[in-house]
């Protein structure tokens, strides 16, 4: 079954071999954030850390949360990482 909303991608990432890691201030290149909805953004958000900043369909210049509403509300998020082989 396809996943339609960013907020629901945790299971799909797990099925692809990613593991959930504790949310912290130190992220690694390739980490994926699955962020729950904020007011006016019911689908949530996803972004990947490139080693310097979070990137989704744009470079997120203010950190993990993509916009003012997300930064104000700070909804829950999960971090997924593909383990080193």
Automatic annotation (TrEMBL):
Domain of life of the organism encoding this protein: Bacteria
Gene3D superfamilies xref list: endopeptidase domain like (from Nostoc punctiforme) (3.90.1720.10)
Protein's name according to its UniProt entry: NlpC/P60 family protein
Taxonomic source organism: Andreprevotia lacus DSM 23236
Classification of source organism: Bacteria, Pseudomonadati, Pseudomonadota, Betaproteobacteria, Neisseriales
């Amino acid at each position: 079954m396809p996943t339609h909303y960013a907020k629901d991608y945790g299971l799909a990432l797990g099925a692809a071999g990613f593991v959930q890691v504790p949310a912290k201030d130190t992220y690694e290149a390739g980490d994926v954030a699955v962020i729950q909805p904020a007011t006016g953004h019911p689908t949530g958000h996803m972004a990947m850390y490139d080693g310097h900043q979070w990137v989704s369909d744009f470079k997120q210049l203010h950190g993990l949360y993509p916009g003012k509403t997300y930064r104000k509300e700070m909804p829950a998020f999960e971090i997924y990482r593909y383990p080193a082989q």
